[in-house]
From TrEMBL:
Residues 15-185 form the FAD-binding PCMH-type domain. NCBIfam families: bact_FAD_ox. It comes from Leifsonia virtsii. Gene3D superfamilies: 3.30.465.10, 3.30.70.2520, Uridine Diphospho-n-acetylenolpyruvylglucosamine Reductase, domain 2 (3.30.43.10), Vanillyl-alcohol Oxidase, Chain A, domain 4 (1.10.45.10). This is D-arabinono-1,4-lactone oxidase.
Length: 437
């Protein structure tokens, strides 16, 4: 990712840094040595995963720890359906690692390029009104604290730290392994349909509760939503995957190849965006297939973008999206990327965007070569008015004073931070903004 003295950039090209030093530890002990060495020189140190956060959460001006070599399956507890993974293991590696043991993740997002530690530490989630984000599947983890101590946390050992450490923003230490509660492998029946946007809004609350995994996309400049409904089935059910050619046409040729060209053209000729959006909603989003869960949850995305996402009380989502639609029409913007609407169950993780409330998510995007600031700022005002909590890994302007009011256990998290990283060894500019000094 970064050569010594080289420039590191995140995937969305919103952050860049030239670390003073880059280390690539391949063991927990090597991580300990790196943290202790940084402390002895008074340097900050940060672990970096795949760089899929759009915020500066992983920016490391001092010592950057690239965890690419800290990867793989470390342990399997078949009796309890649990696996322990090294922190740098990428989500796309999990199907191959879990398949021989008949296991799968309970829920996934639609991108699998992240590392397991990076995805959970930043609050990555999928969709499903009865299912939590990825961090809710963590039942234990091991991290190196700011003093270089190797600390294990699970339901029986240092259990009081688990609600903070499962989603710790990289502020509590360098995670070296995580233990996940898995489920028996299963199939998903995917039904993707274009529907009138108003019908999707009217049915969102009921469908988010009734269906296993429901989400929809709305292309601005249209009145159509592309709905996705995934139903969990046993592994013994009939598997009816997409043909290789069909998947390539839908997910590569149209969703990546053609779409990349239109986004690039739209930066110099915005007038092409509305007619293309109307064409796209007619050409996509109408298929029915059944496959193993990772093949349904995950979509290959190669068109680079920037993103802002807010978690709202679920009942606020339809009204908030209607306000965003009116905003786009009023301002006359040409928005090439669809708006994504998902949901998640309430959980008890202190800094989870779904802490203590059934949540819905609204995510807005822009092509990475476009200036997203005016659009994102105006949408953020709407989200804030609905008690929105920003995704930690996606662009926002909130700071510690504002966030404290949104998270009832915010100061409890800070107390754990004081305990595990008293000298702020893992601090960077983003963490100073969202957590305070």
């Amino acid at each position: 990712m970064t050569a010594a003295g080289g420039l590191w950039r995140n995937w969305g090209r919103t952050e860049a840094v030239r670390p003073q030093r880059v280390e690539r530890p391949a063991s927990a002990e090597a991580v300990q040595r790196a943290v202790q060495a940084a402390a002895s020189k008074g340097m900050r140190i940060k672990a970096v995963g795949a760089g899929h956060s759009f915020t500066g959460i992983a920016v490391a001006p001092g010592v950057q720890l690239d965890l690419e070599d800290l990867s793989g399956l470390l342990d399997v507890d078949l009796e309890r359906g649990r696996v322990t993974l090294a922190a740098g293991t990428h989500l796309h590696q999990l199907p191959r690692l879990l398949r021989p043991h008949g296991l799968a993740l309970e829920n996934m997002g639609d991108i699998d390029r992240q590392t397991i530690a990076g995805a959970t530490s930043s609050g990555t989630h999928g969709t499903g009104g009865s299912f939590g984000g990825l961090a809710t599947q963590i039942v234990g983890l091991t991290l190196v604290t700011g003093t270089g101590e190797l600390l294990h946390i699970d339901e029986t050992e240092n259990a009081e730290l688990l609600p903070a450490a499962r989603l710790g923003l990289g502020a509590l230490g360098v995670i070296v392994d995580v233990t996940l509660q898995c489920v028996p492998a299963y199939l998903l029946q995917a039904v993707e349909r274009p529907e009138p946007l108003q019908d999707a809004l009217d049915g969102y609350l009921e469908r988010s509760t009734r269906e296993d995994h429901f989400e929809f996309y709305w292309f601005p400049h249209t009145e159509t939503a592309l709905t996705k409904t995934n139903t969990r089935l046993p592994l013994t059910a009939d598997r009816k995957p997409l043909s290789r050619a069909g998947r390539w046409v839908d997910d590569e040729l149209l969703a990546n190849g053609v779409y990349r060209g239109v986004c690039a053209l739209g930066t110099v000729a915005p007038a092409v965006i509305p007619p293309f959006s109307r064409l796209a909603q007619r050409m996509t989003g109408n298929r029915d297939f059944t496959d193993v869960s990772p093949a349904v949850f995950v979509t290959n995305r190669t068109v680079r973008f920037t993103e802002q996402e807010y978690a709202l009380p679920r009942e606020a989502v339809p009204g908030a999206l209607a306000e965003v639609k009116a905003l786009i029409e009023r301002r006359g913007w040409r928005i090439s990327f669809p708006i994504e609407v998902r949901s998640a169950a309430a959980d008890d993780i202190w800094l989870s965007t779904a802490y203590g409330r059934e949540s819905g998510y609204i995510a807005v995007h822009r092509y990475y070569r476009e200036d997203q600031r005016e659009y994102f700022s105006a949408v953020e005002e709407i989200m804030v008015a609905h008690e929105g909590r920003p995704h930690w890994g996606k662009l926002h302007t909130r700071d510690a004073d504002v966030l404290r009011a949104l998270y009832p256990r915010f100061d409890d998290f800070l107390a754990v931070r004081d305990r595990l990283d008293p000298d702020r060894r893992f601090e960077n500019a983003y963490l100073r903004r969202v957590l305070g000094p």
